[in-house]
User: Fold these one by one.
Assistant:
Number 1:
Amino acid sequence: MNVSVELGERSYDVVLGDGARHQLAELIRQRAPRARVAVIVTTPSIALQPWFEVTSGIEQHVLTVPDGEAAKALDVLEVLLEEVAQFELSRFDVLVGIGGGALTDLVGFAAATYLRGVSLVQMPTSLVGQVDAAIGGKTGVNLRSGKNLVGAFHQPIGVLCDLATIATLPERERLAGLGEVAKCWLLEGGFAAELADVSLHDLIVMSVQLKAAVVSADEQEGGRRALLNYGHTLAHALEKLALARDSDELRHGEAVAIGLAFAVRVAEALGRVDHSEVLRHDDVLEFFGLQRRIPEHFPTSSLLEAMAHDKKAHHDLTFVLAGAEGFETVHDVDPQLVSDVLERFQGEP
Ligand SMILES: NC(=O)c1ccc[n+]([C@@H]2O[C@H](COP(=O)([O-])OP(=O)(O)OC[C@H]3O[C@@H](n4cnc5c(N)ncnc54)[C@H](O)[C@@H]3O)[C@@H](O)[C@H]2O)c1
Ligand SMILES: [Zn+2]
């Protein structure tokens, strides 16, 4: 099935289904008819997957970059761009990213910057990539000073989400992806009891539809797109502190799950929702097998400090919160209240 991201002339489809990867040649033929060369960028471990094969229908070259978050670095970008330059691409040619969210972020940024922008096809193979990272045109790399500090908006000409690739995803990565899926399910008002009849395929479709609708309404995160940051205020703070100790301690989606449980407790403390909303959140997270406990040794004061300095906050405490009018971004939440909720939350069984 296709879900479209509506952005005027730059609109594109997210193709979802088993075997979507086989639509690359057709997509390039339709959306980049003047392309002569396709440079496919992936990682060594993705290239070894049983489902890995690419037919672009035009001259093609496969390049690899380091796996995982290590791909999102300026030195990796430089090496990649030098390699791309060897193929003498024109502005009509295509870069194709095949891999997790880290890979598609890097390749998207390479496509945004090479010749000030070449065509891009994203083929996300992780759950996070399919439901989130590869859709919406946010691309970028990390600095030592922080994640995603350098980037650009660059929309792809198409996103091919092949659900068959998810089968080889390690369990922990799948679980991390479910953190973002749970976020979408909660934003959509879903209950845990309804999840019994819903397949992973349906959940991916639901999440992609939500992201596509939000991006269509608000490409650059002025308003509605910010709702996708639900659970992310605490999540970013947890990730920042975790990164300083052990980069493997918390996957992004795991941090988001904890952040969702926390945000609803902030909403309850502010009198915006009653306790049934907290239970709805906890039940959904539990259904997905997601932990909502903050790992040991995260001091409240450090978390508060990190939340106030989130790049998406404007030096205050900003949360996406549930309320009578649905979800909305709330600025300047009282630090004492947040601190009290955090203390109680950390003490929960
Ligand atoms: N641009 C955005 O809007 C956006 C949104 C959310 C996340 N992100 C970014 O995405 C990144 C996280 O993405 P991620 O969770 O996919 O992590 P990742 O890209 O690091 O991938 C996780 C691991 O899974 C492997 N993998 C991917 N697909 C596989 C498959 N089908 N089979 C076997 N192994 C597979 C990868 O090679 C990697 O080792 C972060 O850098 C985050 O900042 C970007
Ligand atoms: Zn996220």
Note: The longest strand covers residues 146-153.
Number 2:
Amino acid sequence: MRCLVVDDEAFMRTLITRILGGLGARDVRACEDGQAALVVVGDGVDVVLCDLNMPGMDGIEFLRHLAGMNYDGAVVLISGEDERVLQTAKTLAQAHELRVLGAVAKPVTPAALGTLLKDATRPTTRRAGPRAPIDPVAVEELREAIASDQLTVFFQPKARVSDRVVVGVESLVRWRHPERGLVPPVAFVGVAEEAGLIDAMTDVVFRQAVAQGGRWRARGLDLKVAVNISVDSLGRYDLPDTLVGIAADAGLPPSQIMLEVTESRLMADIKSPLEVLTRLRMKGVGLSIDDFGTGHSSLEQLRRIPFTELKIDRAFVHGAARDKAARAILESNASLAQSLGMTTVAEGAEDQADVTLVAALGIDLIQGHFFAKPMPAEDFDDWLADWRG
Ligand SMILES: [Mg+2]
């Protein structure tokens, strides 16, 4: 049984480690804060024993990140707080679908821990919802789809607000399923991430997108081609050279590529994404921070990663003219990006009121159903011809 003790007090770490040893646990590690603990959890842990009251990342926040990492081991909560706080924390952890063995009030005794840990290694129960263990059939089917070219790319235009010229496209993956027809990404991107297929999928999408970009460019149509990239893929140090090489083969210079980066889960290790993104930027690739305003730590990312574009999430765009809070967020995000010299993109513009507001705020680009839905490359030419009138 691999145990991890998270407590800011050295004395408690030593005490609990000793108790666990006495209970027969062989592999016990201890961390003094949540951030360090998340890294250890990534290595594989069966039971996390976590103090709720810690400076920096507190126990409650730590539990949320633990759930976000899809941690499937057990959790024991420890606190010097009164029983009610401990129970609330337990309920909260269960709401995150974490397997909570119980809560122990300090002082921790061998008897109390021994009773709880009896259940520690029982197999994980099947969870409902998006965190359910992935269906091996779905994984195989997706693997097959990637290998047999069933994934295809749709393109949604990004137009300049000032003169409505289409300056770029976002590439969006679709699955042409032999029986189910066109499957949207929300139905399979999660599976790809869980099953370790995301790199293969990104590769397919990137190749198709830049190939199309190269064909457009050969016809004198200079469109910046954006591809979504999962933070999970940014651990590959070969990525900058690989992507730029693929694009060069397609006849697309790095300056015509935009990578839209979303942080869907906490980055336990930021070193490799930071290096990979910085090197991509140095090669001339544009970096866009996607779904801005909804992520884990968007502002912090903005400070440390050399993004060139900021995409304001649709939640703050559509209907913002009538929604005071959304409008305030839209406005402040736009001016934040402008003051950092970044290109701003408003996503999800669906009606004239959205477009008018976006224009009034000096946002550079607009993308949304009001102009065009994502479409296959073969429809794009016709759409563009109409658009130019
Ligand atoms: Mg995107």
Note: Residues 124-131 have pLDDT under 50 and may be disordered.
